[in-house]
Sequence to fold (444 residues):
Amino acid sequence: MKRTPEIFDKIEGYLNNTLSENEYADFEKEITANPELAQEVEKHRALHTILGDTDTLAFKEKLVKISTRIKEEEVSNNTPSNRFANYWKIAASIAIILGLGTFFWYTSTSTHDKTKELYLAYYQPFPIEDVTRGNTDTTLQHIMQHYSNKSYDSVVTALRGYANLANQEPLQLYLGNSYLNTNQEKKALSLFENIPNTSTYNEVATWYIALTHLKLNQPKKTIRLLKKIISYDGTYKTKASNLLKRLSE
Amino acid sequence: MNNTEDQKILKGIVAGDEGVLTKFYKDNIKYIRPYILRNSGCEEDVEDVFQDGLVFIYQKLKEDTIKIEPSSSFRSYFFGVCKNIWRNRLRKNKRLVVTEDMSDDEEMIDPEVLTDIEDRDREHVYRTHFMNLSDTCREVLNLLFLGKSMKEISETTGYTEGYTRKKKFECKESLLQMIEKDPIYQELHQDSEKE
Fold:
């Protein structure tokens, strides 16, 4: 059954009991006569019932936030400033015994740990939005399903050869994120950087460029981009400010 | 189950007390992790299962239907729930391969609860995909599921009524498609058709 805004409105009116008496009776007849419509109504009903339980949804969201906070705390506890005393003692001992070369090696390893942990704490895949609009492109729907299931290899294979990729910036972001999750950072960078300054997706693309540099342990480049995002003053400003603060600690 | 500490945890869960939840999270996720990682799971699965285990407990507490044997601790009950959620998902998602014999774990939990876990797995699919939507989609759909009209949604969000209606359709359609393509949903759907 083809999904349209009109059918959705009707189903929602039926479920929320906002149809007139006649409309309600007519729609019930339609449901009885059309099993496909009946199935669609049940799908909407399940959606409204399960996701209308806002207490449980809020509880789940709270758990996700707690999990993020715990990860951030772990990163914070492992940063060089918090481990300064032990770190310094170890580094000094090593430097004395083995010379300054080892000391610099240790510093660089430690910075890498920090950027890696911050990347894990701040990176989230670009959310799935309304890319499947129009609903006729089943190939694209399959691709997005792979993305949702985190089968990033399959997304890369499918999107790389997708005919309309060049015209659709969200798809470039999905492909870039899939590259990022399959350790192909250079390819990810080239896609994100391709999104022009004039695009509404430029801010989010800049955010992912910053994170890609973080993953590559290039914090100076990340910092420069974060400052750009902060001065843009858009959706990613708070995230960028927090990450910048953590990187500067 | 009379342990005062357990009672405190249960009260904290049902009240959504962040302090209690954070402590419970930190103290216990490490016990679930090895089990899931040994059995085809990844770090993300560990978080999902742990959180869905807590959601399951939360719902049972709200409904006042939780039954923990007096001889059992809440923690072992919770681990049983998590392990069974994961077993259930492994069974449903045929792409995953079980590498460990998990037959003994079934004894850890009441058969009624096992059925309950299976039934509620559909809800987890809905919530997970919903939470993967963009902030705008979540905001619009949240209000829709609360029974708000397009006019009320547009007043709350500040979007025009036309944009709200368009967004509502696109977001809901996208959500339905994600859910329908989820292997766990497909398996549950086939099971319900057989019944």
Summary: Residues 103-107 of chain A have pLDDT under 50 and may be disordered.
